């Protein structure tokens, strides 16, 4: 995720970091070249048919509404994913506090808190399809790390291990019934947040809707030159390029926000949020906490 102050007006048009311009440059140039070719053919070869600029305006308004709706749906997914991870951070902090209240032995508390940290990393690994064994082995040991990562859903396996440990403590009398219920509610909340993230990661926006919007965007940009050759003359390629930037840009922004867990510049900083969880766990266990992740060229991973 990019974290920086808004650029000044002078540098606004030259900032490429996090911009979608490099991804759509080919399409913008293609539309501008098509417009220039249509203009040359119309003026020097044969008169081409015109399209009413008013009709294209109505077409453009309808297309912008579709793109705006799809963009809002993608941003809702991005923001919901951030809220789910925020809830997970809060739940893991609450878990540490509940353990401090209801569990006497510090070794038992440390074991369950360490499993909570491993859960966050394993969930991140599942969402990004990366190996997190190196990050969790220091918390739960090499043997348990291999056992969890061998499961189909390692993060869920970590929650089951935590639940088994809580049940064992309750059976031994180390936790009373109220404490067991309180901690169980926290684990249930973690499971709901995990399932919400998995829902976002495995359920993209409906393909048929995305296909329709993409086709309509291309049709509009290909028809636009025939509406501009008379209205704007030699300024038509520039105007067409600006319109292509707006429409193709909105389409590409939607594609980036639709899957918020990808390790890209505009994705959620899952690494940094896992580090926040590690710091909270270390402070709760009276251990030295690792430093916060810092920005690297304005990017927080």
Estimate the strand proportion: under 5%
Please provide the count of β strands.
0
Q: What's the shape?
A: elongated
Mean pLDDT level? 85
Output the number of helix runs: 10
What does this protein structure show overall?
The protein is mainly alpha-helical. The protein is 73% helix and 0% strand. It has ten helices and no strands. It has helices at 21-44, 53-102, 106-128, 133-140, 142-149, 154-171, 177-202, 207-231, 236-258, 270-284. α1 crosses α8. The radius of gyration is 26 Å and the shape is elongated. The chain starts with 20 loop residues before the first helix and ends in a 17-residue tail after the last helix.
Which features does this protein show?
301 residues; mainly alpha; 10 helices
Strand-helix topology:
Elements: H1 21-44, H2 53-102, H3 106-128, H4 133-140, H5 142-149, H6 154-171, H7 177-202, H8 207-231, H9 236-258, H10 270-284
Give the gist of this structure.
The chain is built from 10 helices and no strands. The chain has 301 residues and is mainly α. Helix 2 packs antiparallel against helix 3, helix 2 runs parallel beside helix 9 and helix 2 packs parallel to helix 10 (270-284).
